[in-house]
């Protein structure tokens, strides 16, 4: 199944990319060609590091934990379906914690910030991660797999759904509000994740879930009451055109960090109470 993942994801990407052109959720503010090129380069480098540094030790760790029956799913003998569901849920819950850690700890945020600097958000933003963030995730992934005791089949299914929904919830696709509310019972959706990419600090520090939104509900980090039309995408201190040049994106984490939530004129992006709970 793992062999087919790139082809499936390519199809999902192209489908969502087409829908974004037909039914956009937010107005596009910057050149699409320019952003596609930048995001393609950053994503390609991230995928290369993932293939070289992350995936090989993941495979070895899964082989080791399954041979020795290590991990939470091996503590008690369970039916295969229950073990799969438990491992799947724990994978998603632990990713919630990893995502939240990337916002909470300043060293990790230096690199994760590159993902949020994108001044528009669409399906091309989904895998735009600094290659060092991907490298740093290796330790987390190995701990995650060893802790849970994930089988190869469960890992493949989770990776496919994880990556496909990452494409989906980053996409700029406008779904009918009723449809999105229904989907949002069980899935992170574009409107929900759009709030996470807001220039308002409290909104960025919310909606960390990847597949299931339940973890945000459980940890009281869920925001659903901000209309997409009122959201400005990006990071205030890194909203100049030069900040999104490829060479700058690669070196920004190694430079002195700006005050993320203040623009160059020292103003902040605030949310007017009058727009909260509006539906758009």
Verbal overview:
This protein is mainly alpha-helical and 280 residues long. It contains eleven helices and no strands. The protein has one domain. It is globular, with a radius of gyration of 19 Å. It starts with a helix and ends in a 29-residue tail after the last helix. The relative contact order is 0.15.
Number of strands: 0
Could you give the order of the helices and strands? HHHHHHHHHHH
The 3D shape can be described as globular
Q: How many structural domains does the protein architecture include?
A: 1
Task: Report the helical percentage.
Answer: 55-70%
Which secondary structure elements does this structure contain, and how are they paired or packed?
Blueprint: H1 5-22, H2 32-68, H3 80-104, H4 106-116, H5 131-148, H6 152-170, H7 177-183, H8 190-196, H9 201-204, H10 214-218, H11 246-251
Helix pairs in contact: 1-6, 2-5, 3-4, 3-5, 3-6
Key features?
mainly alpha, 11 helices, 280 residues, 56% helix, globular
Brief synopsis:
The protein has 280 residues and is mainly α. It has helices at residues 5-22, 32-68, 80-104, 106-116, 131-148, 152-170, 177-183, 190-196, 201-204, 214-218, 246-251. It is globular and about 60 Å long.
């Amino acid at each position: 199944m793992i062999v087919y993942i790139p082809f499936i994801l390519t199809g999902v990407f192209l489908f969502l990319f087409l829908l974004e052109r037909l039914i956009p959720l937010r107005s596009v503010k910057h050149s699409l060609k320019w952003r596609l090129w930048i995001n393609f380069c950053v994503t390609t480098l991230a995928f290369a590091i993932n293939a070289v540094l992350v995936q090989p030790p993941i495979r070895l760790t899964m082989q080791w934990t399954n041979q020795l029956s290590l991990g939470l799913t091996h503590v008690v003998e369970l039916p295969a379906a229950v073990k799969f569901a438990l491992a799947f849920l724990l994978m998603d819950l632990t990713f919630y914690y990893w995502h939240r850690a990337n916002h909470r700890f300043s060293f990790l945020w230096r690199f994760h910030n590159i993902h949020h600097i994108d001044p528009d958000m669409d399906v091309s933003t989904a895998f735009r991660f600094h290659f060092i963030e991907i490298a740093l995730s290796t330790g987390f992934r190995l701990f995650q797999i060893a802790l849970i005791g994930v089988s190869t089949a469960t890992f493949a299914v989770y990776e496919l759904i994880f990556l496909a929904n990452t494409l989906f919830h980053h996409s700029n696709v406008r779904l009918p509000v009723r449809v999105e509310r229904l989907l949002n019972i069980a899935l992170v959706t574009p409107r929900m994740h759009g709030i996470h990419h807001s220039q308002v600090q409290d909104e960025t520090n919310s909606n960390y879930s990847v597949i299931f939104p339940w973890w945000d509900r459980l940890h009281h980090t869920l925001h659903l009451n901000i209309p997409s039309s009122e959201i400005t995408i990006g990071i205030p201190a890194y909203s100049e055109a030069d900040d999104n040049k490829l060479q700058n994106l690669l070196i920004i984490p190694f430079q002195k960090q700006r005050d993320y939530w203040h623009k160059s004129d020292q103003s902040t992006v605030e949310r007017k109470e009058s727009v909260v709970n509006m539906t758009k």
